[in-house]
Design a protein that fits this description.
The protein is α+β, with helices and mostly antiparallel strands. It contains four helices and four strands. A four-stranded antiparallel beta sheet has the order 1-2-4-3.
Length: 100
């Protein structure tokens, strides 16, 4: 039976980037759902640290769910919503575009 034994003098660490990558994998789906689903999105694009979204109905946006999905902030003005997600905004926007 093989055992997983650490080498003396070496410690095992969990790569925080791997954890963040795994957490980010489902972020596009969660953000899309919090924006009211694919049918509610007219247009979405990444802009430096934000997702700029034009929606059919801005009132259905679930801000709590967006923050739970990792958003740092949400700004709403009618049917236009900006979701602050950090420097990976372009990647997340592209992933959401693929889901539409």
């Amino acid at each position: 039976m093989a055992r997983d034994v650490a080498t003396p003098g070496h410690t095992r660490t969990v790569d925080s980037n791997s954890r963040e990558a795994a957490m980010a994998d489902d972020r596009p789906e969660k953000i899309l759902a919090a924006l009211g689903g694919a049918d509610n999105v007219v247009e979405i694009e990444g802009c430096i640290t934000r997702l700029r979204c034009e929606l059919e109905d801005g009132s259905v946006v679930d801000e709590a769910a967006l923050k739970q999905a990792g958003a740092h902030g949400v700004m709403k003005a009618g049917t236009v919503v900006q979701v602050v997600v950090g420097p990976e905004a372009d990647t997340i926007a592209e992933d959401i575009q693929d889901l539409l």
